[in-house]
Write a structure and sequence with these properties.
heterodimer, A: mainly alpha, 2 domains, B: alpha+beta, S-adenosylmethionine decarboxylase, 6-stranded antiparallel sheet, 5-stranded antiparallel sheet, 9 helices, 34% strand
Chain lengths: 276, 477
Amino acid sequence: MNQGVLFFDISAIGYIVAFLGLLVARILDRRWIRATGIGIFAAALLAQSVGLCLRGIALGGFPVTNTYESLVFYGWVFALGFFALLGAGILRGRIRDSVGIGVGLLVAVTMALAGSPLRSPEVVPLVPALRSHWLALHVSLVFVGEGFFTVAFAAGVIYLIAARSSKRKDEQSELLERLEELIYRSVAIGFPFFTLGGLFFGAIWAKHAWGRYWGWDPKETFMLVTWLVYVLFLHVRVRRGWRGQRVVWIAVIGFLLALFTFAGVNFLIRGLHSYA
Amino acid sequence: MAARVARWAERVFGFLGSLRLATFLLVLLTLACILGGVIPQSSVTPNADLIFRSYGIFWYRLITRLHLDDIFHSLWFLSLAGLFALNLLLCTSRRARGTVARVFGSPRFRALSEMDSGTIAIPIAEPMPDMSQRLADAVTRAGYRRVVRLEGSGRTQLVGLRRWWGALGADVVHVGILVILAGAFLGVFREEGTIRIHELEKGLLLPACGVKREQGQMADCLPFDLRVDNFGVQTYEDSTRVKDYWATITASRGGRIFQEARISVNRPATIRGISLYTWRYGEDPNAALVRLHVVDVTRSMVTAEVELRVGETLPVPGLQLWVTVVQFYRTFSLDGVGNPIDLGDVTGGHPAVLLQISGLDATGEEVAYRDLAFPFLPETSTQPKVSFLLADAQLPAFIDLHFARNAGYPVFWWGFVLVMVGLAVALYVRSSTVRITIEPSRLLFCAEGRGGARRADRLATDIATIHGLGLPTEAEE
């Protein structure tokens, strides 16, 4: 059973084309190419959504039960996060183009990783511990949080590149200010989702399945590490008033840790979450 | 002297509750958690000690001396966590005074010089008699639910407050984290344990104080007698993949049944404050029933048969020997230094039993030795006349039930609720304040916080339009 794979392949191609389109639009500054790129981006997201629905129906549950499905869902949330910020009017002008390129690239890479021959796209029945409604709540909210962290990361990388460029100072400082505001807003939106899904719903589920809410399993520990880094980000920015590259670096490191928590821990460190 | 001590104490408490220390501790705790996530922890990883030994003596000593093998229970980590809790407590208590005054107290009159930049002015001929009330109504209509009238320097100032409780968010988060830490501390006194029930024990009453425990620190007696009526494993249709494992249990006391329950993975039951979980299932090699053939080596024939469980001792029929099954191996193998090990269920693997044989041999000489028996190979001992073959083995199914009682759980959950409510308020609710000062010849509008100038301008424009006043301009001293 490989439900949804065709749609995932179509969406992967769509994301690559959208990424290239937005990149060309940014270089040539052509509106019609930009509009086409965003249209293809939306179509790819739609195809991916259809694929996820089909897979969910085949599985009889939330399709995040193995690495293949998790990567596909991860990419879907990245793309959704981008469109959510676009719809809310937070992304505009050059920032929208730059973040679109960054997110498009990340989603394309995620889909390519999911499509690698090392990950089986087969629908596999759930192990007993995963047969719980907490799976959907726990994983989806973590990914929603991480979707916004991805936008913050993409904006952070653009910020760090732009901060080193030799463009006009006034133009550059306005761009940097807007990017930094975007990073803060993305983290501020994503952090409560990440906290609720990752730490709290995870703890409630662990209590139901394993009889304890916290056990210092490597996945739990790295989830806490990521959370602490974003706590640091919010504190130094809001309370200590840090601005500029220092605070952007914390957001970038936070996302890299979130990525390691998701993928690195699965492949490098064994634990109770090894099926994830 | 007393003043100096007080000043010194204030500085120490100030530092202990400072954001600077909080930042430093957050970084240290993050690094400690990274170490604990990367280095196998003895509380989580089985055989962690063996892994450290494989690193070499230097790393082994470093890891064990710094307690890096059990970081999260080490004194230095707990001290860091304790210091963090103290920092949070002091910081919260210090902040709370200001927040309470800001949220629940009355605002203070502010002169123009104290106001944020972006103050807007509307010229007026002279204040109307009911102007204060009219403006208060306009401010209320603009969404500022709480309006306070202040007097100062012979002038009236109206302060409109919108979502003023939003300032509580960060403090609620801090209190929530402190409650979670308190719940975690209570968890130190938790009771937990695991009992293993074999197939043959189905339906047997396990008395409250006689339950055998495999591990854990459960109190000597449960508050009830327990009977596991049945247990089993459910597989998916047309598949051998396990879908669930379950047990039906009955709790009673003095013969009076007070609760029956079916527990399975993710569906525990709570009886008299104790939660019961299905923990593990399988076939237990430590309770295997083995059938041994006794072979006369010289005549190459089976002379007798013995059936016994692991740990059991029986006489060998027709001989003056006693045999004990010491251990059963589902798949026999040898480790790096030649010790027998069980590889578990491996396709194509060979089972074996380790036997202890004692008594008198054929010559009447006393013997006592250990021997391995396989399904088809002769035993490997030097015993010349008698050999054992492993004819059959039955592994009884078992289920492990986990018990846990933790007074910290409810505290923990309330902490979660507080943190989430606090986060939502702190990050999503933006409180705002607007001030209108009535001067003899003008009205001054000032809104505090981010986007204040825009909000002040909008309110001033609305009021000027409604009341037919002059155009709003930027205020000057």
